[in-house]
Specification:
Number of helices: 15
Structural class: alpha+beta
Bound molecules: glycyl-adenosine-5'-phosphate
Strand order of the largest sheet: 3-12-13-19-16-15-14
Helix content: 25-40%
């Protein structure tokens, strides 16, 4: 039922957009990205062979490589290259008290309405977005009934929508064989709480001085009523979060500091910063734990929407968990305040893909390719023998070029299918910055052709210098 409603919703959206040419181009872009991701092994719909499971996606070889590169770049910048940051990988399942104390059992909810006939549930803001609001301010059920056709179109469900009620988005589960309320647990809806509950452990183990941070990358789960827009709003996703602990009087200084750091990282992974806008969230829209939040919104083809956020969580969480910090020098006891830079990994991947998608004309042909930065590209270089039926070329390419580069960089693939032009197009499409070809001259002078994805320029490089050549280009 949910899947059906999602499909109907997309159809409704598409119908609205079709009037506007500009919107159509943007919609096309989204379709192209979704199709490229499936065709080229980046991202697949979850449980697809059984009809799909809305709000879930599976990551294929290239998507996983892209995601891991983005993750690694985040960890390198925010953990490995700093002296004030500690890593963590906490359990997803935690005791229910964590979520009670954190306020999520009570507050982690979206207003939602339910249709009396089709029983589909809708978030109010989604009904606004897809134009399901009547002139008198009430809403109509946007589900279309596939079996009922009027004037060549599916008819809308006639059901009345309920009054809005709060729908808690945490996935509840039971731990162990017992069915009583003490066995209730939740799949974490944010990684942040794993950090807060390990605050004392981290302080006791590492004795950090304020300010310091704890960083974590991991899965989060939200029972979104209306998952949508590919990997933008899903039910299972990854977050990359930092809780940065500061003295209360310093929060504004560090809030500004982290804003700059977040922007710097987005640029480093190739997100088009002309399409990123920082928006201060109005007081009435703040999450229950936040006193100030700035969202970084990206111009996705389906609208300008949140990519990541920066929140001032005050001492809300540490206080609720009854946690304190003792300054080891002057024995002062206090509760630090928290600045929280929070990133959704999937949303970052989508913004990187959309920023990288480029069209140009090459050799009289329009080519579409991913202009991914080498630091995030799933493949750094592809190695090809000019002809795959010439054993001497294949042998040279395999042993003297491919094998050593594969050992050095890992992200190297062998590509000998079709003619060279086709191989270049195939690599361009997945964003491979360099293609290396071993030809007959290679056998004479130990040089290969290296072709640059963006310019199409080719140069001869000595085989013994290839590793350094690539290192210089990708750093
Ligand atoms: N700990 C703070 C927190 O969780 P949030 O704004 O609710 O704040 C942080 O989520 C980030 O997680 C968002 O900026 C977004 O990138 C990502 N995110 C949230 N819900 C998501 C969903 N349903 N699908 C994909 N990403 C999501």
């Amino acid at each position: 039922m949910i899947l059906f409603s999602q499909l109907m919703e997309i159809e409704l959206l598409n119908k609205k957009m079709s009037d506007k040419k500009e919107k159509k181009i943007e919609n096309d872009l989204m379709e192209k990205i979704v199709s490229l991701c499936k065709r080229r092994g980046f991202i697949f719909p979850g449980s697809e062979i059984y009809g799909g499971l809305a709000g879930t996606y599976d990551w294929g070889h290239f998507g996983l490589a892209l995601k891991n590169n983005i993750k690694n770049s985040w960890w390198k910048k925010f953990v490995d290259s700093r002296r004030d940051m500690y890593g963590l990988d906490a359990a997803i399942l935690m005791r229910q008290e964590v979520w009670q104390k954190a306020g999520h059992v009570e507050n982690f909810a979206d207003p939602m309405v339910e249709c009396g006939v089709c029983k589909n549930r809708w978030r109010l803001d989604v009904l606004d977005q897809i134009g399901a609001k009547n002139n008198d301010g009430t809403y109509r059920c946007p589900t279309m009934i596939a079996s009922k056709i009027k004037d060549g179109k599916n008819e809308n469900c006639p059901g009345k929508l309920s009054e809005p009620r709060q729908f808690n988005m945490m996935f509840q589960t039971k731990i162990g064989a017992s069915e009583d309320s003490s066995s209730v647990s939740y799949l974490r809806p944010e990684t942040a709480q794993g950090i807060f509950v390990n605050f004392k452990n981290t302080v006791d183990a590492f004795h950090p001085k304020l300010p310091f941070g704890i960083a974590q990358i991991g899965k989060a789960f939200r029972n979104e009523i209306t998952p949508r827009d590919f990997i933008f709003r899903v039910r299972e996703f990854e977050q990359m979060e930092i809780e940065y602990f500061v003295r209360a009087e310093d929060w504004e200084k560090y809030f500004e500091y982290w804003k700059d750091e977040m922007e710097e990282w987005m640029e480093e992974v190739g997100i088009d910063m002309n399409k990123v806008h920082d928006i201060n969230i109005a007081k009435e829209d703040l999450a229950h734990y936040s006193k100030r939040t700035t969202d970084f919104e990206f111009e996705y083809p389906f609208g300008q929407k949140e990519l990541c956020g920066l929140a001032y969580r005050t001492d809300f969480d540490l206080k609720n968990h009854g946690l304190e910090y003792v300054d080891e020098e002057n024995k002062e006891k206090m509760t630090p305040h928290v600045i929280e830079p929070s990133f959704g990994l999937g949303r970052a991947v989508l913004a990187v893909l959309l920023s990288a998608y480029t069209k140009d004309e090459k050799d009289g042909e329009i080519r579409a390719y991913l202009k991914l930065r080498p630091n995030v590209a799933p493949v750094i270089c592809a190695v090809s023998p000019l002809l795959k039926n010439k054993p001497e070329l294949v042998e040279y390419a395999n042993t003297k070029v491919f094998a050593p580069l594969k050992t050095e960089f890992g992200r190297v693939i062998w590509d000998d299918n079709g003619n060279i032009g086709k191989r270049y197009r195939r690599q361009d499409e997945i964003g491979t910055p360099f293609c290396i070809v071993v030809d007959f001259d290679t056998l004479e002078d130990n040089t290969v052709t290296v072709r640059d994805r963006d310019t199409g320029a080719q140069e001869r490089v000595k085989v013994e210098e290839l590793k350094n050549y690539l290192k210089n280009k990708i750093n």
